[in-house]
Amino acid sequence: MSTIAENIAKVGVRIREAAQASQRDCGSIGLLAVSKTKPAAAIRQAFNAGTANFGENYLQEALDKQVELHDLPLTWHFIGPIQSNKTKPIAEHFSWVHSVDRLKIAERLSAQRPAHLPPLNICLQVNVSGEASKSGCSPDELSALAHAVTQLPHLHLRGLMTIPEPTDDPAEQRAAFARLRELQQGLNLGLDTLSMGMSHDLEAAIGEGATWVRVGTALFGARDYSTP
Length: 228
Ligand SMILES: *Cc1c(COP(=O)(O)O)cnc(C)c1O
Known about the structure:
Blueprint: H1 3-21, E1 30-34, H2 40-48, E2 53-56, H3 59-68, E3 75-78, H4 87-93, E4 96-100, H5 103-112, E5 120-125, H6 139-150, E6 155-161, H7 170-187, E7 193-195, H8 202-207, E8 212-215, H9 217-220
Parallel strand pairs: 1-2, 1-8, 2-3, 3-4, 4-5, 5-6, 6-7
The chain binds pyridoxal-5'-phosphate (PLP).
Pyridoxal-5'-phosphate binds at residues 34, 36, 57, 79, 163, 198-200, 214-218.
C-alpha cells in the first residue's frame, strides 16, 4: 500500500468515527482531497485508493494536472481565491467552486459556464472569524449574496464554505463551524452543502454538519512552497 493509500484509509477512519460520534451517516460526508502543490502522480495514487474529488487553489497548476490526468474520471473543485480575470477557465474546467465571496465573480462564472455543461456547483465562502485578512464575505453580506446567486442561470448554489481562524481548542473549532451551519439554516434556501473542516479540525466540522471535508496535509503530507 502506498503512503497516500494508507493516509486515505486513516482519514476514512477519522471521518467514520466522527460521524458515529454525532450519529451521522458517514455516506453524507464527502472527502475532498486537496492536492495543491502536489504532483499529478500523487493524485493518481489517491484515485487508485478510491478518491475521485480533488480540490485545487491555483488555476494554472490545476489546469496542467487536469491535462495530465484526463484519462481518469475525476471531479475537480476550485477552492482558492478567485481573480475576476480568471473566471472563464474556472467556469470551463471545474464542477464545483467553493470560494465565491462576491456577486461579480458569481455573475462572471454563470455567464462563462459553457451551455453544454451542467450548472456549476457553488459554495459561498463566509468569514466566520472576522479577521480582516481572510477572504470570504461577512455574515452580514451573506443573505443578499446568496439570494442573488440563486438567480444566476448557470450556477447551482449548494451551500457555504469557511476557513476559520486556526485553533487547537476543539470548542472554538466547533463554535466557528456551528456559526456556518446556523448561517446556512438562517438562509432557508434548502442548501445541502457545508464545506468545512481540514486536516486538523475535520472532527469538529463533522460534528457540526460538514458535508465536504477538505483535506490536504493528512493525505499528501506537508506542502513545500519553495521553488525547485
Ligand atoms: C490548503 C487548503 C485546505 C487543506 O488544508 P490541510 O490543512 O492541508 O488539510 C483546505 N481548504 C482550503 C481552502 C485550502 O486552501
